[in-house]
From TrEMBL:
Functional pathway: Carbohydrate metabolism; D-ribose degradation; D-ribose 5-phosphate from beta-D-ribopyranose: step 2/2
Higher taxonomy: Bacteria, Pseudomonadati, Pseudomonadota, Alphaproteobacteria, Rhodobacterales
Residues given in the record as substrate binding sites: N10, S11, D12, G38, K39, G40, A41, N42, E136, D237
Activity control note: Activated by a monovalent cation that binds near, but not in, the active site. The most likely occupant of the site in vivo is potassium. Ion binding induces a conformational change that may alter substrate affinity.
Protein name: Ribokinase
Annotated gene: rbsK
Amino acid sequence: MAVWNLGSINSDIVYFVPHIVAPGETLPSTGRQVFLGGKGANMSVAIARAGGTARHIGAVGHGAGWTVERLTEYGVDTRAIRRIDADPAEAVIAVAADGENSIILHQGANIEIPMDLVANALSEAQVGDWVVTQNETNAQLEALELGKRMGLNIAYAAAPFSADAVAKVLPLLDFLILNEIEMQQLRDALGKEPEELGVESVIVTMGGKGALLVEDGKRTQFDALPVTPVDTTGAGDTFTGYVLAGLDRGMPIGQAIGQATRAAALMVTRKGTADVIPDLAEVQEMRL
């Protein structure tokens, strides 16, 4: 089985700062690093490191070939990533001393992914595979519609959040994951609770308060693990990737969430994005 991920690929330029910059403020950084990132790339790496088969679908622009090489090194199948005539996708990330972050995103090649690339990649998928996307690329709706027609399991990570984008794909979904702020925005837009969305499995992540699973009209709370965060960037993507890898490998969803909770807890103790996502052995050996 495999998880087909139509996802963004970024160069993450991370600046470490004493606090998140205020309007009009000039703030010297205390350090700078460049990582592989993008919600899509993060999820693909997390899927691979969780023991799943990650098949990434995407595009990269000028000078971003190193990101594809890095994904390959981390065990992601990159044959459906195309190099195109476009700007590279970049994220400028400020990480504060308390672990909070702010992000400026230049979408570049991520929103110029050719639809023929998506269709050709998914033509290799098998019934029972998963297809997932996020709101950082073009062709989301088309990819999920194609996946549905092919009998694939359909997942959506609703970030960066747009109620319109979620509403368009909602009828196709078997799995939806979003954070509690995004769930409130969706509730405001649609007037529906998670149980009323028509999606088999909905996960609402709540940071330090854990995660909520809504399935078959039942709510199940999963507590977060007590850790001291140094950088929350990529923790949600790590969680999502681990859950999807677990489901693709046949795990019950509760077990997959438990494993993902441990992975996300370990992730927030590290500085960086895709390059520092923990592997399955580290997660299993984690001392609580």
